[in-house]
Amino acid sequence: MVNTEATIPATDAEDSTLSAITISARVPDFWTDQARLWFAQFEAVVVNQGLPDIARYNLVVAKLNKEAIQQTSDILLTPPVNDKYNTLKTRLLTVYEESETRQLQKLLSEVELGHQTSKAVATPTTHA
């Protein structure tokens, strides 16, 4: 049987839309607990696409949860004229990435709490 249907070539706009959908599907939702790793993965996905600044910015915005949108609302409502992506990335990393000092303080407080719990369990009280 002969296929009589003509193949209609995709337009550049259709190719671009399909490419954007494919890229978006490969990028997970933003990780507030590991923002730097999320950006490493995001950039690995988009690096060979040659996306302009606005496209990378829009992809990141599409992957943000409500909390992250609230944290960046000023940028989202009034984006900078240039360097939108890096402006948004810098803000997200500032908000969600813990500094080394803060991580150390958190670790020490968890160790201290764990130590206090161990002591409380290890020393039973006796009533005479």
Automatic annotation (TrEMBL):
InterPro entries for the chain: DUF7041
Record domain DUF7041: where: 27-108
Pfam families per record: DUF7041
Organism superkingdom: Eukaryota
Name of the featured protein: DUF7041 domain-containing protein
